[in-house]
Amino acid sequence: MVQTQKQKHGWRFTGTNGDFKLEQPESSSYLYFPLVNEGGMMSSVSPKLHGQVASGHNTFLTPPLSVEDLHNSRASRNFWIHLEGQGVWSAAGNSAKQNAEVYTDEADPVELEAGLLWHRVTRSSLQLGITAEITSFVPCGQDRVELMKVTLKNSGSEPLELTPTAAIPLYARSADDLRDHRHVTSLLHRTYTSAYGVEVQPALSFDERGHRINHTSYGVFGAEGNGAGPVGLFPVQEQFIGEGGSLDWPEAVVLNTEAAEAVDGAALEGYEAIGGIRFAQVILQPGASKSYVLVLAIDEDRIDVPVLMERYGSETGFDSHLKQTQAFWADKVNTVQFETGDSAADQWMKWVTLQPVLRRLYGNSFLPYHDYGRGGRGWRDLWQDCLALLIMEPGEVRSLLLNNYAGVRIDGSNATIIGQQPGEFIADRNNIPRVWMDHGAWPFLTTLLYLNQSGDLEFLLQEQTYFRDAFSSRCKQRNPDWSAADGSDLRTAAGEIYKGTILEHILLQNLVPFFNVGEHNNILLEGADWNDGLDMGAQRGESVAFTSFYASNLLEISRLLDTLQQRKGLKTVELAEEMVLLLDTLGEAIDYESISGKLSRLEAYYSAAANEVSGNKAVLEIGRVAADLAGKAEWMFEHLRSSEWITSTSGDGWFNGYYNNDAERVEGEFAAGVRMTLTGQVFPLLGAAAAPEQVPQIIAAVERNLLDPNIGYRLNTRFGGIQQNLGRAFGFAFGHKENGAMFSHMTVMYANALYKRGYVQEGYKVLDSLYRLSTDFERSRMYPGIPEYINEQGRGMYTYLTGSASWLLLTMVNEVFGVKGLLGDLLLAPKLVKQQFGPDGTASIETLFADRRLRVVYKAAGSVEYGEYQIQSVLLNGSEVTLQRVEEGLLIERRLIAALSAEGIHCLEVELV
């Protein structure tokens, strides 16, 4: 990806580790930045210090907000300056006067700086002669704390007599209470003051969990840079703003009213609270500065304020923890590093690399665009986020995968509510049964990547439990006698907890959908597939796209069984005896053309394994099981190629991706125009469903129908109408979200598929398009990274939390740089194009493999265009490696890598000629 940053008003990188600057950030709406740690503190901050601070759905320190609140709400992390004889000024830019000046020449000059993961805004008032620098971050570690340091500097020529006041609203309760009993829940507040600030511990938690005694406390505390405490406090919001006042023009600041003395022990009940902290009046001489530290904290019980302030409440403590946090995130992100001909693109990838970690920590909630859900991740997220973890944090992945498989039901579906702990799954709390038909496909894809990276074939034979709740037959049946007290583990007829191998779980998830077909012999759409917006075709809708995904999985599983037989000498596999019904060629084979025959066989299986199993295992020949799977896959490929291929009048063609709830084909050339989805093409390309001769036709059709030069590759063409027989997505305006936007996830997967099929220039074009769209600040209006989607105007939407980041990282490492595993060995198969080589003909990547840090440097002695070079030689730490060529590329045995020291970075110099 190559682009010289020419944005007139855009951000620019300032170093080599992803730090960037942006002038006048307030000139762009909807900007926010994540601040988070592994301990559960989840914050966001805007250029004017709007945003929210929370540790969970029921524990918000500041008011919950949506993206529109960033510019409409008056609540923020404010820091006020009362200047004797000159009025008031907000160091955060949040005063009624400053807001009114935003489009005038009197607007404050502002500069934003940010890095991994810290945020700084420097604001000046030329009229008043004062400059404020506000630095924010969440310390790495387990403390649920956010820190702010405000440094005031006299940038004028006259002494300034000023009185500082911090003002941060303390919401201190569940997001559910924002409009449901907002006032009533304030009556639960118990507000305490101390020598450093204000703490709120509500008496009860008043939310969907019931009226429980609350223990969680929330606090805002402050100190001068030398650790000296404030001189007064304003703990009650209505007293701070005054009658007729507001948070952006509060009486306590405007009139410089006296604050209550900051002492320990005072308590107030029943009011909206605020961390109103008054610091001592100070006279700043020209050029002089003074710093203040603010600590925002959430704790499981009353906060130990002296300990907290000893740790964080000084400039020395703040600076020390800032350095530790910067080093922590740099170390995590720099696990994977790219060096190409464009340093800006390389630094942009640092932010993409960070995004999967952010989604692991935030889930899909707690950032302004992500104002849905209640925290945590969904089933699909668990598996796709592991794709990036396999590259960044591989040591944790095996246990995560093992735990995740405990969420599989015996009917091939899975739990929909994911608990907080690894491997914790919960029955649907809303009693709404729903199955996303794609969920069974992702676990094997992720597991196969793990097996290739590690060579750990024994993982397939490890046992794990199954998830059980009231629902069975893919949520078509409900057992009224089941209760949570029965437990969530599948049991045998004898009442014992049943376990099956991971291989058994994988087979189950991919075999059941094969039989679960609609009227055109494709797998039923059910609640939706990957595109959650296709949620209104549950009865007769079919997902052709994911039929091809499941078909490819069945073929890969078949090959994996052959590998187990060859490498491990495994002759048989043990499976739950009920599953033999699904391996029909091992017993009573059925005609795969017969839809009724498939459905009948599926019902027989459901009856045999209706929320419990016998506990008996069938011992099956591994070769016969592999042949059964391969036969099913080949039938599906032939069916898709013959029945779902659309030949266009333009000479190209593509796959139909869906049938709607009236059993009508969705895609094709209609009187009203062309209907085409990108999803319908990606999955046939990713696997083996698309025949080699069909690939160039698909590419031509995508370029013609889906590529928009202004927003990139659209998710679909304009279908017209609301499409109530297909899904809510078509109620969205065209060009937004799942209806025709550039949806990054599918665009990146499209690029990945093109690389896999050998269409490297075409794949590069797709990735480069996404990069250019994301970094064109004049249009995208987003910080570095990849958004969930680009809307009709070119704006980046739903920033930071998107599965597309995992796929982009995976594509860059495995496909572009060609560093990947092959059943444990290291495979080098670079697909770099000339734009990605530096002036000296080199391109490099640092990454982990076999628990060793490797720096792979490709050196081109001749052409740097893909297709015109091949690997000539390899040096490992200066010693020549004997080349072992395979069809996919060059193989280096794992033992050579594993024998290297666990310390330091090891260099692979790869000469290309």
Give the name of the CATH superfamily of the domain at 21-333. Glycoside hydrolase, family 65, N-terminal domain
- What would the CATH topology of the domain at 21-333 be? Beta-galactosidase, Chain A, domain 5
* Neighbour order of strands in the largest sheet: 1-2-9-10-11-12-24-18-15-14-21
Average of the residue pLDDT scores: 95
Please report which band the strand proportion falls in: under 5%, 5-15%, 15-25%, 25-35%, 35-45% or over 45%. Answer: 25-35%
Count of DSSP H/I helices:
22
State the end-to-end CA separation: 22 Å
Main β-sheet: number of strands, strand sense, barrel status? 11 strands, antiparallel
Could you state the oligomeric state of the chains shown?
single chain
Poorly predicted tracts of residues: 1-7
InterPro entries: 6-hairpin_glycosidase_sf, 6hp_glycosidase-like_sf, Gal_mutarotase_sf_dom, GH65_N, GH94_catalytic, GH94_Enzymes, Glyco_hydrolase_94_b-supersand
GO molecular function: carbohydrate binding; glycosyltransferase activity
Keywords: Glycosyltransferase, Transferase
Protein name: Cellobiose phosphorylase
